[in-house]
Specification:
Layout lengths: L11 H12 L6 E5 L6 H14 L3 H12 L6 E4 L2 E4 L2 E4 H6 L12 H11 L9 E5 L7 H12 L4 E7 L7 H4 L3 E4 L5 H10 L9 H7 L3 H13 L2 H7 L6 H14 L2 H19 L2 H15 L4 H13 L1
Parallel strand pairs: 1-6, 1-7, 2-5, 5-6
Antiparallel strand pairs: 3-4
Helix pairs in contact: 1-2, 2-3, 5-6, 9-10, 9-13, 12-15, 13-14, 14-15
Length: about 325
């Protein structure tokens, strides 16, 4: 029965809880998958669906896995946070494909919760039950969360899976109606296995990236992609503290010209790890943390970096 979860590494407790629920025919109407981003919560949801829909039959799992990978199973609704743009709702991926830059993060909207209710108003077409997955459930506004609460009270022939970083990040009334499934950061061995299995073993050579990831393969991949998006010349320059004021001002200008605010915020994470490995001085980390706060308050980025590097020069 655990074959469905063969792809999920480093989460034995979650696998045990979910497989036993199916084995004992005690599947809850709602689950809350809690843990850091990138540790396997979304993958676990897909594995759980395979198990629920196939009843453990390997030949059925293959067919169902194909449908789930193509996102065309008629009894599955996967809900992601969205942006509102010109009358359309766009996921973060769709917004990136269109080249849209948004200052506010995407959210789960009230109309998306209404679509869940509409989806569950009909009977399952192929599977024994319907499944709804709500990613980043913590982004729901109170009105959307209250609307979802009504659905959780009467889910019908359905199981809902909410994915969030912690129980505290969503309304207590939602938490109380879900069975909690914890997900944990991976240890070094599990991180190594996951990154090698999915073809990202090169990340293992970047200690700063691994430190930023903090046991999350997904975060490690995202951090490495950010790293690759920065030119080698700029990266080499920023990983050394400027020797004088002229270099500090030049570096601040180059960062402001080459990187958008999101990339600059990530660069602060990277520099905190890189500088700490080189010098282990808490004062440097604190100065970079102040730069992060200033950027988040929409201060002029070039000025933020100029002040930061000028202080580091001293």
């Amino acid at each position: 029965m655990n074959d469905s979860f063969a792809q999920l590494i480093g989460q034995p407790q979650a696998v045990e809880l979910l497989t036993q629920a199916v084995k004992q025919n005690r599947v809850a109407p709602a689950y809350l998958f809690v843990g850091a981003n990138g540790v396997g919560r979304g993958l676990a949801a897909r594995c759980f669906m395979e198990l629920l829909f196939s009843n453990g039959l390997s030949e059925a799992i293959t067919v169902i896995r194909t449908k789930l990978q193509k996102d065309n199973h008629p009894d599955v609704l996967w809900v992601q946070p969205t942006y509102q743009y010109q009358g359309q709702r766009l996921t973060a991926t769709e917004a990136a494909e269109k080249g849209l830059k948004r200052k506010a993060p995407p959210v789960i909207r009230l109309e998306q919760i209404r679509e869940i209710a509409e989806f569950l108003s009909r009977l399952p077409l192929e599977a024994p039950r319907q499944i709804v997955v709500v990613e980043q459930a913590e982004t729901m506004a109170e009105a959307a969360a209250n609307a979802l609460l009504k659905t959780l009270e009467e889910p019908g022939q359905a199981t809902l899976i909410l994915i969030a970083p912690s129980p505290d990040s969503i309304l207590p009334t939602l938490v109380s109606r879900c069975q909690r499934i914890p997900f944990y950061s991976l240890d070094t061995a599990a991180m190594t296995e996951v990154l090698k299995r999915i073809g990202h073993q090169e990340i293992l050579q970047h200690q700063a990236v691994l430190s930023i990831a903090a046991g999350s393969p997904g975060e490690a991949i995202a951090a490495y992609q950010q790293l690759q998006a920065i030119s080698p010349e700029l990266l080499q320059a920023v990983t050394k503290i400027p020797k004088n004021y002229i270099q500090a001002l030049q570096l601040a200008r180059d960062i402001d010209k080459a990187l958008d605010t999101e990339a600059q915020l990530w660069l602060i994470d990277y520099l905190q790890q890189s500088y700490w490995q080189q010098w282990q001085q808490p004062s440097i980390v604190k100065q970079l943390e102040q730069a992060r706060k200033s950027l988040l308050c929409y201060a002029q980025p070039r000025l933020v970096w100029e002040c930061t590097f000028l202080k580091l020069c001293q």
